[in-house]
Design a protein that fits this description.
Length: 328
């Protein structure tokens, strides 16, 4: 059935209460320049503050606001994908509500989408923010990541993007439990166009080296088997070197040119090969862990209540509401 909603704005909430009112008002002003037919889909990702209460107050003023309340914190990417499954608009504008990504960008994105006839217009940072270490580590992250992937991820890509309905329908068919959303955006295909933006910042916002390393491992093991192939070639190289070394030792033994055996080189060799073995087994373990998680077939997210349809609003937060949501 065709949707009568022109634009859906999808965002997730986690410690977001301080930003929601301004986010909503700025987004409405931007949308109004394009269409009067819109909806908001706020996904409460188990936020420990009063984000849900603030969103409910906004909904009291504007019934075009829909709220999906998850039963706990499932993570940013899962929350966004859950929100996308709920969106009904012909166009879907996805962004974070902390105002680092500006709602007013919708106008630029819409103009490019209309002019190019593309399916996606996504934001990329014109320049990475942060200190030297953060900028260097960010560049290293994308360099290493794209060396491992068959379909490279655009450098400095942001969450914010405007998408057509047909693209979103294809995107939400992916049911990965271990999500690398940037990778899913790419492999879904269609005509996608970047647009440069300058991302803001807010207090307490950080992306640590540890988080970046974790994202790198997750992205590579979700979309590429190259580490497993590299392990094979590395093992083949070690075996070849070992055979050559053994041949040299045999020749030296036959010619009587072996001197006093040393222990330092022996210990170093043991540590090197032991570390190489553990590293290789660890990579295989990561892949096995992902296979284990994906084959469990657990719910993608669990919705506690949904505010935005009559049958759910009437009994929001009750077993009847939960059943109505889970019947989708």
């Amino acid at each position: 059935m065709a949707s009568d909603v022109r634009i859906s704005v999808v965002t997730s909430m986690y410690r977001s209460s301080a930003y929601l009112e301004e986010f909503y008002s700025r987004a409405v002003r931007a949308i109004s320049a394009i269409s009067s037919s819109y909806e908001f889909v706020f996904v409460n990702d188990g936020s420990p503050d009063d984000s849900l209460a603030v969103a409910l107050r906004i909904r009291e003023r504007d019934p075009r606001v829909r709220i999906v309340d998850l039963s706990r914190n499932f993570g940013h990417y899962r929350a966004l994908m859950t929100g996308l499954t709920q969106a009904r608009g012909e166009l879907v504008f996805l962004l974070d509500c902390d105002l680092e990504e500006e709602p007013e960008w919708l106008l630029r994105f819409h103009e490019m989408l209309r002019r190019t006839g593309s399916d996606v217009v996504y934001g990329v940072q014109s320049a990475r923010k942060g200190d030297l270490l953060e900028r260097v580590s960010g560049e290293l992250f994308y360099a290493l990541l794209n060396r491992m992937l068959t379909d490279p991820i655009p450098r400095n890509v942001l969450t914010v993007r405007l998408m057509t309905r047909r693209y979103v329908r294809a995107l939400v068919q992916h049911m990965d439990r271990e999500i690398c959303l940037a990778g899913l955006w790419v492999i879904t295909g269609f005509d996608q166009r970047p647009i440069e933006v300058i991302k803001g910042s807010r207090p307490g916002s950080s992306y640590t080296l540890r988080a970046r390393a974790s994202s790198l491992v997750n992205a590579v093991t979700s979309f590429s088997n190259r580490p497993l192939i590299y392990i094979f070639y590395l093992g083949a190289a070690v075996v070849t070197v070992s055979l050559l070394a053994a041949l040299v030792l045999v020749i030296r033994a036959i010619t009587g040119s072996i001197g006093v055996a040393g222990y330092a080189s022996l210990i170093i060799s043991i540590w090197f090969l032991g570390g190489l073995t553990l590293f290789s087994v660890g990579i295989v373990g990561v892949y096995l862990a992902k296979v284990f998680t994906e084959t469990k077939n657990r719910p993608y997210t669990v919705i506690r209540a949904e505010y935005g349809t009559a049958e759910v609003d009437e009994h929001a937060g009750t077993p009847a509401a939960d059943a109505a949501v889970l019947r989708r």
